[in-house]
Amino acid sequence: MKALVTGGGGFLGGAIIDQLLARGDQVRSFQRGDYPALAAKGVEVVKGDVADAAAVIAACEGIDVVFHVAAKAGAWGPYAEYHRANVGGTRNVLAGCRAHGVRKLVYTSSPSVVFGGGDMEGADESVPYASHYEAPYPATKAEAERAVLASNGPDLATVALRPHLIWGPGDTNITPRLIARAKAGRLRKIGADKLVDATYIDNAAHAHLLAADRLGPEIAGKAYFIANDEPMPAFDLVNGILDAAGLPPVTSAVPLGLAYAIGGLLEGVHGLFNLPGEPVLTRWTARELGTAHWFDLGAAKRDLGYVPLVSTQEGLQRLKASFT
């Protein structure tokens, strides 16, 4: 088949491309930057912004399946920028699929679309969307996911995947942020260090290919949680990542209530003085780090045939090797 991957120059998009190429599929990548390494692999590279409707629609021509991975991530920033990329970009992808008769769309969503601020222990897909969001990223991802699933029909089969905290070699988000904050002495456990279930990069990409291959009436119009199926205390994983990078573990902690208050204060300071970058801590990240996040993967196992390929322990060994 011929696949279009939006955000193919990114961490997850690149992993999906590698797995598609490994099994002989043709791939077109759509991303904002120049990535000569993709072209060297035989990928058809198209440069553009997902917010550019004409460019996205053109990129969908001759495509069998779209993996819509591109998104604006982060815990801070103007709502309009997140909406433009995450909602507007997704609407453009849907328009491109309709314009060129694309039959399948696999959308990369996030568990944050159902996160209301409390513990999520063994949550499954029956959990409703959150009634309130404390950051523009989950708010816009939820709106985009709703649009994708609502667009499912006889001409276009859609499915949304919600991989939780993707990490591994080549990570440009979670791992470098943890390392930078640990080196600066700004990383603390928050609250009781509750259980989380993150997703190694190869497993996240594998789930996307499974979803595309099985995208028929049984799974169309549905969302699925994806993770490693290994719930563990959050900072067991964080400290494993730091150890892989040759850094000492984090042992000090702050109460969740205090972290939440500090996040709110820092958000206020950033907003008042229009400071660059994002706050060291926000209310949303405080709640994310201080609450439990692990999910019942039964639906993904049953409907997608999903089984994690790489364990957390093996993933940490691979991550450590990537630093040497």
CA-based shape? globular
Mean pLDDT: 96
Would you count the extended β strands for me? 15
| Strand numbers in spatial order across the main sheet | 3-2-1-4-5-7-12
CATH class of one domain: Alpha Beta
Structure class: alpha/beta
- Largest sheet, strands/sense/barrel: 7 strands, parallel
Q: Give the full name of the CATH homologous superfamily of one domain.
A: NAD(P)-binding Rossmann-like Domain
Overall CATH architecture of one domain? 3-Layer(aba) Sandwich
* Rg of Cα set: 19 Å
First-last Cα distance:
37 Å
User: Could you estimate the helical fraction of the residues in percent?
Assistant: 40-55%
Q: Within the CATH hierarchy, at the fold level, what is the topology of one domain?
A: Rossmann fold
Oligomer: single chain
Order of helices and strands: EHEHEHEHEEHEEHEEEHEEHEHHEHH
Q: In percent terms, what proportion of residues is strand?
A: 15-25%
Treating each run of at least 4 consecutive H or I residues as one helix, how many helices? Answer: 12
Low-confidence segments, given as residue ranges, are none
Describe this structure in words.
With 324 residues, this protein is α/β, with parallel strands linked by helices. The protein has a domain of 216 residues: NAD(P)-binding Rossmann-like Domain (Rossmann fold, 3-Layer(aba) Sandwich). Helices cover 43% and strands 17% of the residues. It has twelve helices and 15 strands. The protein has a seven-stranded parallel sheet with strand order 3-2-1-4-5-7-12, with helices on both faces. It has a two-stranded parallel sheet with strand order 6-15. Strands 8-11 form a two-stranded parallel ribbon. β4, α4 and β5 form a beta-alpha-beta unit. α1 crosses α7. The radius of gyration is 19 Å and the shape is globular. The model has no long low-confidence stretch (mean pLDDT 96).
